[in-house]
Write a structure and sequence with these properties.
The protein has 307 residues and is of the alpha/beta class. It has eleven helices and eight strands. Strand 6 and strand 7 form a beta hairpin. It is globular, with a radius of gyration of 28 Å.
Length: 307
């Protein structure tokens, strides 16, 4: 991995909290089977390409998420037609079908995804634009390919953070891909993704750190009551911002999550565990210290008799 590759401090051990109930084993296995079956259907139909209506693709993407046991709520603005750069924060492997449910798009993906079972062939046949993040020199060529796709009237989906975060915090949007929107003179469509259980934020779907894809999928299908919230913000005309830095800042969805730097500090220097209640009470109500009694030394001299 090169020094410029984006990363996140999140790890499964530090960030993932298992809230809510768990699903019965037979149902979890049925969910995995349904997800795989739907993805195989997508691979089989992928040669049809653009001949498949966009509404069917969007419905199929929502079915994948729903098959994993996650309800989907999409709210917000209408998405424009024509060339469009779709950008969203990145938490989970579920983000990919959720972003495509907003509008079918060619996804920008790291080259490692080619080797993923089922998902790799599906991404390749779906027209994904792969990038080797270990080669800095390949970045200008990737930006040029994105711009060409945008000029052709296609939508391109990107996760500009460059890495997945747990959802309690998020990274900054990297500005390189926004140059493609400026070059092609197309709008940017920001999308905010959240995951909740009973209204509270959940990190269970996060695919972070050393987590394996299989472990993340299993955790999702075993979790009960997950809801994916997709909030579509107003599209941003690229020409209204002077450069890619300003465009990236405008597209970054606001969030109440922890900023990146305190989240990093908390994970790097975790708080010390609290002492037992008895010790905490002793600290709050200190008892007076009792001094040991003073013992006068006995005289070793004989007492003289009174005259």
């Amino acid at each position: 991995m090169s020094v410029w590759t984006p990363g996140a401090p999140c790890t499964p051990r530090a960030c993932i909290e298992q809230r809510g109930g768990t699903t019965a084993l037979p149902r979890a296995l049925a969910r995995i089977s349904a997800v795989v079956a739907l993805m195989l259907v997508g691979i089989a139909l992928s040669p049809l390409g653009g001949r498949i209506p966009a509404a069917w693709v969007q419905r199929w993407c929502r079915w994948i998420v729903r098959a994993a046991g996650v309800r989907v709520r999409i709210t917000g603005a209408d998405v424009p037609a024509g060339g469009l750069l779709l950008v969203a924060n990145h938490i989970s492997w579920l983000d990919i079908p959720l972003l495509a449910a907003v509008r079918p798009a060619r996804m920008l993906a790291k080259s490692d995804i080619r080797d993923w079972p089922v998902a790799g062939p599906l991404a390749a046949r779906g027209g994904a634009l792969f990038i080797d993040r270990n080669r800095l020199r390949a970045l200008p060529g990737t930006v040029a390919r994105i711009a060409d796709a945008l000029r052709a009237g296609q939508a391109v989906g990107v996760f500009p953070e460059g890495s997945t975060w747990c959802g309690r915090a998020q990274g900054s949007f990297r500005r390189a891909v926004f140059q493609a929107a400026l070059d092609a003179h197309v709008p940017v469509q920001p999308v905010r993704l959240r995951y909740r259980i009973a209204g509270a934020p959940s990190t269970a779907p996060a695919f972070i750190g050393e987590d394996s894809l299989l472990a993340s999928v299993w955790r999702v299908v075993m979790t009960r009551g997950l809801v994916a919230e997709v909030e579509i913000h107003e599209a941003i005309p690229a020409d209204t911002h002077p450069d890619r830095r300003a465009l990236a800042q405008a597209a970054q969805p606001s969030t109440a999550a922890q900023p990146a730097w305190p989240h990093t500090v908390l994970l790097t220097h975790p708080a010390q565990p609290l002492p037992p209640p008895s010790e905490r009470n002793a600290d709050l109500h200190p008892q007076p210290t009792r001094r040991p009694p003073k013992h006068r030394p006995r005289s070793t001299e004989a007492t003289a008799p009174h005259p």
